Amino acid sequence: MMRLATLLNPEFLIPDLTGCGKVEAINQLLEKISDHDPTIDTDEVMKKVLEREMIEDTSYAHNFAFPHARTEAVSKMYLAMGVSHRGVEKCHDGSQLEVVCLLLTPSNISRLYLQTLSALANFARSKENINQLKEARTPYEMLDVIWQSGVMVNREITVADLMRYNPITIAESLSLRQAANDLFRYRLSALPVVDDAGKLIGQISDRDLLTAALPDYKSLATAPDHDLPEEPFEELLKKADKIPISQIFQVDHEIVTPTDNIVTVAAAMIKSDLRRVFVVDADNKPIGVLHRKDIVNMILRG
Fold first, then answer.
1. Which of 113, 133, 154 is the last residue of a domain?
2. What pLDDT is attached to residue 91?
3. N or C: which end of the chain has fewer CB within 10 A?
């Protein structure tokens, strides 16, 4: 392992971004890199970065964004970071974007690229790290903050690098309606079900809710229209407040730990055709969820 700070060059650190938007901030960081290497095709780099932003906005919580791209317009990996004391734009959580980190790498560097993205995400999860960066007045002070954070670039990608933190959980004593509300509100396909002690005991999914409305779904799938029940969903709606989750949730679920190797976990998910696994701590309390699509997004899209 190595510290994230060792990948940063003070020449590519800007303690006071002057742009008023993310694109302007990216341009300033790209100018720092191109000053160091004038052979870089900055137009091509910007095109690739903005294409990646169109796929998914990289402005995350805690006032941090890390736009990135793999492109043959660069011959080695570059990492640049800037801080805006006025704020750039809104993040997903409504906070003001204040730190922008630009990561560029050629297509033949994949492992270090993914590991660095993971390390940046770990750094950004700490609000204290962001606050200290905002207090830095020189590139060397910024570098010292990153060094003192102790964030490491691991040799392997683990579950902690890709999982979704702070999962929405639901108690087994709550109603089916509450489960439906939470699935809709948070745009989820399943919720980890916990007992009174907060320990994971199963999951409830959108499929389980449909099954509650259509318990005879196997026969209904091939039944003629005239044999179908008239209002199965309406009947479920009438009873939704009275049906406890404990009656319909599934005890079958797979758990992993944050330190598990992502390759091993991905192989297990393929073998068992799992859409998700739940990440638990030593007390079997859910601390995250890892979705199959999250692995695909990271490995194939970056």
1. 154
2. 53
3. N
**CATH number for 187:** 3.10.580.10
- Residues 113/302, Cβ–Cβ less than 8 Å: yes
Q: Mean pLDDT, to the nearest integer, of 190-201?
A: 96
**Inside any domain, residue 112:** yes
Same domain, 173 and 116: no
Question: What pLDDT band is residue 217 in, cutting at 50, 70 and 90?
Answer: very low
User: Tokens representing 208?
Assistant: 């389980």
Confidence of residue 223 (pLDDT cuts 50, 70, 90): very low
Does a structural domain hold residue 266? yes
Domain count, the chain: 2
Residue 133 covered by a domain: yes
Across 16-30, 100-114, 139-153, 216-230, the highest mean pLDDT is recorded for 139-153
Dist. CA 260–CA 283, nearest whole Å: 16
Report which of residues 59 and 196 the model is more confident about: 196
Q: Is the pLDDT of residue 216 over 60?
A: no
